[in-house]
Design brief:
The strands form three sheets. The protein has a seven-stranded parallel sheet with strand order 5-6-7-8-9-10-11. It is built from 14 helices and 13 strands. The longest helix has 19 residues. Helix 2 runs antiparallel to helix 3. It has 385 residues and is of the alpha/beta class. It has two domains: 129 residues, 2-Layer Sandwich (Enolase-like, domain 1), CATH 3.30.390; 230 residues, Alpha-Beta Barrel (TIM Barrel), CATH 3.20.20.120. The relative contact order is 0.15. The chain binds [(2S)-5-oxo-2,5-dihydrofuran-2-yl]acetic acid and magnesium ion.
């Protein structure tokens, strides 16, 4: 007997069509001034992206910036305008789980704008994960780890305050690795500051520095041996992002490893960084790589070039931090741990249950999607009017 296929009615629960995209700018005060070489912030600004599917599931993503368009070229105002006018129209009506095809549509609709695209992809992965009842890492290849050693950043510029802050983090067993922001003052003043910090914390904590592009090559040549003498384990982005050749010359003579941050956004940047051997480690961030899949792609190129991996941040709330953890969970290696301390630099998180930091590790949340629940009351409270 012939078996005739019976038309199956569309399963609405599984209808992943993208129906609506919304964007909200929020400004959340920080617990203290956070000072980098070229900017300082007392509030963190994000664009929160929410995407609703036809099945009713809603996903959330976050685009972080630092000091307006001064850490990179994207600002929250620009991100919101680009999503509303260009990126959202390009994906409405698409099926949300076609992550790679949607990435191509986003790239065709706008050049670069990696933070904006990263927030959209995060929201799509969250919405699809919620629909299927699966955590995001299961959509990305599964998890290799569930907890991550986590740095705190010392960035007030006042060594007395910084030692006190580090002691509090150590005694609460939150952080035993500290990244110190340098480059806002002459290098001699930073070395005096680091001498105090290293004397106070040596043997109990790992210390690294981030100059955020502040030095020129002769300054970095002077600074790196002094950093090694102080027991600093790594120096991040000592030179301007454009100067990969200078970073390669520095790396060839540096007594400590160098980390690439602002010089590696795309997989092509990473390929060039590898070809030039301009660093030993790369800092991975959704805002730079345009999403979780882009982060994995850059990580793959980095591994192929012999770079070690570091889980970077841009002071994300638990929303953005959770998205990063979902991506970091599936990496083959993550030798340097991560720095998702962002939720604790805010006076108020944006989720109902903040991510857990315990015993010097941050933990992968277990829920579906990126694993957090947006706190709508806090979103409304900090939304820019
Ligand atoms: C950066 O350049 O790494 C990450 C931590 C922090 O304090 O600043 C950011 C950005
Ligand atoms: Mg950096």
């Amino acid at each position: 007997m012939e078996i005739r296929p019976i038309p199956v009615p569309p399963d609405l629960r599984r209808d992943l069509t993208i129906e609506a995209v919304s964007t909200t700018i929020v400004d959340v005060p920080t617990v203290r001034r956070h000072k980098l070489s070229q900017l300082s912030v007392t509030a963190q600004s994000y664009v929160i992206v929410e995407i609703r599917l036809r099945n009713g599931a809603t996903g959330v993503g976050e685009a972080a910036t630092l000091g307006g368009p001064r850490w990179s070229e994207e600002s929250v105002e620009g991100i919101k305008a680009t999503i509303d006018a260009h990126l959202s129209p390009a994906i409405l009506g698409q099926s949300a789980e076609r992550f790679i095809a949607i990435g191509t549509l986003l790239d065709a609709a706008a050049k670069r704008n990696s933070a904006a695209k990263g927030a959209i992809e995060t929201a799509l992965i969250d919405a699809v994960g919620r629909t299927l009842g699966l955590p995001a890492h299961q959509l990305l290849g599964g998890r290799v780890r569930e907890r991550f050693p986590v740095f705190w950043t010392l960035a007030s510029g006042d060594p007395g305050q910084e030692i006190e802050e580090a002691e509090a983090k150590l005694s609460a067993r939150l952080h035993d690795r500290f990244k110190i922001k340098v480059g806002a003052q002459p290098v001699e003043a930073d070395l005096a500051r680091l001498t105090r910090l290293s004397a106070a914390l040596a043997g109990r904590a790992q210390l690294i520095v981030d100059a955020n592009q502040a030095w020129d090559e002769p300054t970095a040549v002077r600074a790196l041996p002094a950093l090694a003498d102080l027991g600093i384990a790594l120096a991040e982005q000592p030179l301007p992002a454009w100067n990969m050749a200078g970073m390669a010359r520095l790396k060839a003579r540096s007594p400590i490893p160098l980390m690439a941050d602002e010089c590696v956004f795309s997989a092509h940047d990473m390929f060039q960084a590898g070809a030039l051997a301009c660093a030993d480690v790369v800092s991975l961030k959704i805002v730079k790589h345009g999403g979780l899949f882009g982060l994995h792609k850059v990580a793959a190129v980095a591994e192929a070039a012999g770079f070690s991996l570091y889980g970077g941040c841009l002071l994300e709330s638990s929303i953005g931090a959770a998205a990063h953890l979902q991506a970091f969970a599936g990496l083959n290696t993550l030798a340097w741990g991560c720095e998702h301390f962002g939720p604790h630099i805010l006076t108020q998180d944006l989720v109902l249950e903040p991510l857990v930091i315990r015993d010097f590790h941050i933990h992968l949340p277990s829920g579906p999607g990126i694993g957090i629940e947006l706190d709508r009351a806090q979103l409304a409270r900090f939304a820019r009017t």
